[in-house]
Amino acid sequence: MIVSNTHTHVSNVPAKERAHSRTYSFVHGNHQANRARLLISCPDQPGIVAHVSQFLYEQGANIVHSNQYSTDPESGLFFMRVEFDIPDLDTHKNTLHNQFQPIAEKFAMDWKLSLANQRKRMAIFVSKEEHCLRELLWQWQNGDLYAEIPVIISNHPIAKKTVESLGVPFFHIPVTRDTKAEAERQQLKILEQYQVDFVVLARYMQILSSNFNQIYKNQIINIHHSFLPAFIGSNPYARAYERGVKLIGATAHYVTENLDEGPIIEQDVQRVTHQYDIEELKRIGAQIERTVLARAVSWHLEDRILIHQNKTIVFE
Ligand SMILES: Nc1nc2c(c(=O)[nH]1)N[C@@H](CN(C=O)c1ccc(C(=O)N[C@@H](CCC(=O)O)C(=O)O)cc1)CN2
User: Can you give the residue ranges of every domain in the chain?
Assistant: First the structure.
C-alpha cells in the first residue's frame, strides 16, 4: 500500500483558485530532488533487508540512511526506514511503486514511499497561547520545517495579525459547547479546500470529535503541556503545582478520540522546586512545549515516525 505525501483529496476547487501556499525558498540538502524515503512495517523474518536493498540497488539507488527495528520474537514485527537517492526520481517514482509491490506482497508489508522534495501541507490550529505557533512559524520561515502552511485556524482572533503578516490565510472560527459541531464542519471544509495533509494543534484547546479523528487518522499532532501520562486534560500546570511535582514537561502525541492518550512522539522535562509558582511553571513549560512540538513536527515531515499499537517508532 502506498500513502503518498499529499492527502488524496479530490478537490472541487479549480487549480487556479486553490489556496495560495506561501513557501520560503531556503532548502536543506536532504530535500534534493532525487531523495526518497521508504517506510516499512511487516512480520519479521529473514531476508527483508536483503530484498529491499537488492531492489534499490537494481533501481540504481544509493542508500544514504537505513534504520530498522525488530520487536520481541513473540509479536515478531519488523520496522524499517530507508532514505535513498535515485537518478531521475520524478520519472522513476511510479515505476518504483509498481516494481516494489511484489516485494511488499511477499513480506506482507504495510509501506509508504515518499519524496523528500514534496512539501507536506500542514494546517495549524491555535487558541489563545501563541508560543507554539510562533515557534513553528519561525522554524518554517528559516527553512527548518520543510512544509507548506496553507492555512491557520483558531477559535480566537488573537493570532490573526501574526499569521497574516506572513501571508498565511487565517480563519477565526469561534467554538462554544453549542456550536462545536458546526465549527468542526467549517474547519473540515477549509482543510479540504486547502488540501491539507496533516494538522498540528499548537495549544489548541478544543477536543476534536471522533469524526475529525477518523478523517485525519494519525495525521493530527498535539502538544500537551504536561509529561504524559501525568495530568491528562485541562489545566495541567495548576494540577502539577498542587501536586508539588519536581519535574514539569511537555508531550507531543498523535491525537485520537481518547483525550491526550494517543501515540507519544516526543517528550521533555525540566526540574522545578517548591519555589516556583504556577505562572513560573507555565513560563518554563512554554519553552519545553515549543521545542518538543517542533521536533515532533519535523520528524513527521521527514517520515521518521511509524505507529504500532498506540506507540511510535521514531527513526531519528
Ligand atoms: N480528540 C482529541 N482532541 C484533542 C486532544 C486529544 O488528545 N484528542 N488534545 C487536546 C489538547 N488538550 C491538551 O493538550 C486539551 C484541550 C482541551 C481540553 C478541554 O477540556 N477543552 C474543553 C473546552 C475548553 C475551552 O472551552 O476553553 C472542551 O473541549 O470541552 C482538554 C485538553 C486538543 N484536542
Answer: 29-115, 120-314
Going by C-alpha positions, the residue among 240, 219, 216 that lies closest to residue 288 is 240
Q: Which three cell numbers stand for residue 83?
A: 532514505
User: Do 120-314 and 29-115 have the same topology in CATH?
Assistant: no
Please, how many CA atoms are within 13 Å of residue 127, restricted to the half-sphere of its CB? 10
Q: Is the pTM of this model over 0.95?
A: no
Q: For the domain 120-314, what is the CATH code?
A: 3.40.50.170
CATH class of 29-115: alpha beta
* Catalytic residue (choose from 72, 85, 144, 260): 260
Q: DSSP for 202-238?
A: SS--SPPPHHHHHHTTT-EEEEESSSTTTT-SS-HHH
Q: Is the interface score ipTM higher than 0.90?
A: yes
Catalytic, 277? Answer no
- Residue 174 Cβ inside 6 Å of ligand 1? The answer reads no
